[in-house]
Amino acid sequence: MTDPIHPRRLGRSGLTVSEQGLGCMGMSQSYGPADRGESTATILRALDLGVTFLDTADIYGLGQNEELVGAAIKGRRDEVVLATKFSLTRDGGAMKVNGQPDYVREACEASLRRLGVEHIDLYYQHRVDPTVPIEDTVGAMAGLVEAGKVRHLGLSEASAQSIERAVAVHPIAALQSEWSLWTRDLETDVLAVARRHGIGIVPFSPLGRGFLTGAITSPDDFGEDDFRRGNPRFQGENFQANLRLVDEVRQLAADKDCSAGQLALAWVLAQGSDVVPIPGTKRRSYLEENVRAGDVSLSAEDLARLDRIAPKDVAAGGRYPFAHSYGDSPQRAD
């Protein structure tokens, strides 16, 4: 068994994970062609390096991502803290949210089958269903804990109000939300509420969907099947404005003798010992670069400089096209 790198505890839950996890979504969708062989090798390399916290969801690749992760960890299950999510479904081309209690149980059983495991370590509601009281959804999730099918519960992209209502039903171990140098919405009110209830923070897209690495210099860098081609932050004047942010991050990274991506990830890691980012990649080379971000030390002066470079709302453009804004939101009251 491989020990997790620099273990961190997710809030007061008792769930201990590696200081960064591996987001597996891009192995099956959104970021160009899939490569099952390299993706599997990346997961196994992550475990060898002590990145033992793996994140997937039933919607990723319409179940294919869970199957990929499950097959990759077969024989090494005891090394992995396995997280997956439910509630997002597709109705034709439209995304829907389902938080009905019966569906919670049905979705969990399907995920267990695809993953080939007997239990899920961390089970998130992927988005809050505004048509179903969150108390009902979390109550059904709590039943999965009682049945031994799930160890810990999580929420993803939930508002402060939803968090307050959820924890009144069952302890919540983790909140997964987008958090990076160019997406700091979480800091407005959600972060304080989560911490007050002892909830660990699991930032997704801590590298700004790859933009903060400095590797993306033109919209032409994206393939036809890359969802970023339709993302407002990667288009027109927004793209050019955001490039100026990346240039400043790269300058500080050069001073620190690290890559821009490592600096951006180190900033997230520096936000607290209860913060465990899950940068996504499907390539071993990027995984290994991300892991080395844990060795980047940021002084108070460095952090202050980054706050000046990337204050709240610094990014030009929304996080998603309007059509992809669904479910709950950290910035929206219930």
Q: Care to describe what's here?
A:
- With 334 residues, this protein is α/β, with parallel strands linked by helices.
- It is built from 10 helices and 11 strands.
- It has a 7-stranded parallel β-sheet with strand order 3-4-5-8-9-10-11.
- Strand 10, helix 6 (190-196) and strand 11 (200-204) form a beta-alpha-beta unit.
- The protein is globular.
Please tag this protein with its features:
334 residues; alpha/beta; 35% helix; globular; disordered C terminus
Please describe the topology of this protein.
Elements: E1 8-9, E2 16-17, E3 22-23, H1 36-49, E4 53-55, H2 64-73, E5 81-86, E6 88-91, E7 94-97, H3 101-115, E8 120-125, H4 134-146, E9 150-156, H5 160-167, E10 174-178, H6 190-196, E11 200-204, H7 236-256, H8 260-269, H9 284-291, H10 300-309
Parallel strand pairs: 3-4, 4-5, 5-8, 8-9, 9-10, 10-11
Antiparallel strand pairs: 1-2, 6-7
**Low-pLDDT runs:** 330-334
Largest sheet: 7 strands, parallel
Strand order of the largest sheet: 3-4-5-8-9-10-11
Question: What share of the residues does DSSP label as strand, in percent?
Answer: 5-15%
Tell me how many strands there are.
11
What series of H and E elements makes up the topology? EEEHEHEEEHEHEHEHEHHHH
Taking the alpha carbons of the first and last residues, their distance comes to 44 Å
Total helices: the number is 10
User: If you average the pLDDT, what whole number results?
Assistant: 90
Q: What portion of residues is helical? A: 25-40%
Strand-pairing-aware structural class? alpha/beta
Given the C-alpha coordinates, what overall shape results? globular
> Radius of gyration over alpha carbons?
19 Å
